[in-house]
Design goal:
By secondary structure, the protein is mostly beta strands. 5% of the residues lie in helices and 46% in strands. It has two helices and 29 strands. It has helices at 2-15, 21-25, and strands at 33-39, 45-51, 56-59, 65-70, 80-85, 91-93, 97-100, 107-111, 114-118, 125-129, 137-142, 148-157, 160-169, 174-182, 194-196, 202-207, 210-215, 221-224, 231-232, 238-242, 246-251, 257-262, 272-277, 283-292, 298-306, 309-313, 322-323, 329-334, 340-345. The strands form seven sheets. Strands 23, 24, 25, 26 and 27 form a five-stranded antiparallel sheet that branches.
Length: 370
Amino acid sequence: MLKRLLFTTVILSVLIGMFHPKLYAQTNTQQPTKIYRTSTSHFQKELVAELPPFHFARMSPSTSFLYLERIGATKKDPTTSYLYEMKTKKLVKLNGLGKWYPKSDKLVLLEGGNLVRFDPVSGKKDTLVTGSKDGPILDFAVSPDENYMAFFTNSHIDNRSEQLLYLQHLPTLKMKVNDRFQSEYQKNRFSPSFQWMPNSKKLFYKAGETVKELDMPTGLKYVHKLMKMPSYSADLKYGLETNQSGNVLKKLDDGKTLLVGQYSGSISQGLLDDEVWAPFGHSFVANEFLYTSNAQDSYVRFRYQDGEKGQYFPKDSYGEPSLFLYDNIRFIGWSQDAKWMYTADLNSIHCFSYEDRCTPESNNLLVIEP
C-alpha cells in the first residue's frame, strides 16, 4: 500500500515537470558499486569495498560476506546474483536469488524453482523445499531464531490466483500449509512479504490488501487493516506502525506513541520506509521520503532512530538527499555489535536507465525484479 502511494506521487510529479536531464545524459553509464560503513557513535563514514556495477546488495549477519544482484540490460537478460567475501575480495557467481539467515552466514537461494540452503564458508548446499511448476515459490523469510521458514507458493484455480502460506520447521524440514487466500502476488524487493517478530512468536504477512498476523504458539490468525506490516525492535521495547497520520513509534510497555514520520503536502512526503532494526537494542535505520523529483523519482535520506532520539546521517543538519531509484543508495545491514551501519552506492534501477523497461502499459517505474 505504501509503495503504491509512492508510485502515485511519482506519476503526479511527471505531470507537472520535465524529465530530469541527468537520466537521459547517463542512461547507459555503469558506475562501480561502493560499500560504506558509518559508526553509530560519531557518524563518520568510510569506504570499505569497491566492486563492479551492481543493483542490489545485502550484508551477511557477520559482515564477512556480501550478497549482490545485477539486473540484465533488457527484459530478456536475466538477473544474476553473486557472493563477495569482504576479507579476500573474492567474487563468485551464484545460481539463484537469495536472502540471508537472520543470525548465521547462510543463504537461502531460490535455485531452479527450489529453496536451497547454502553455506558460503564450507560451500555445502542442501535442498529445503522442492518447488513445483503448478505452485511456484514466490517469496520466503527465515525466522529470527532460525527454526522456521515461511514461504508463499502460487496456484491458479478456475482462472483465479491463490496464494498458499507454508511454514517449514528447519531442523526437521517438516512443513504444512497454514493459510490460503485469493490474491495476485506483486513482487517488490523493497516491500517484503513477511515480517517476523524478533522473538519468532508472531509472523506478519501480506494477504491481498490486508495484513495478517499468525500467532505461532496457538496458530490463531488475525487480520489487520494496516498500510504496511508493523516491525519491532530486537529488545521488544518499541514497535513501528504506519497509519493515516504517518509513522508511529510505540513504546510497548506503556503504549506511549511518538510520530516519527508524517505526511507533509504530498501523499508520500515525510514518511519513513524500509526500516531495518539493529540486531539488539532498539535502533533502526530507514529511508525518509522528502519530495518528488520531476523524473518519476523521489528524493530520500537516511534516518537513524534510537528510541525517541533520531537524526539523519551523514551527521549534519539535513543529511544527504539522493534519488531513490536513479542514485539507488541503500542501507544494506548492521554489524553484529550494532556499532556500524552499512550502505551501498549502487547503480540505477530507474527504468529510464534501461533499453526497454519503461512501458505505458505496465507503468513499470521500479526495475527490481528478474
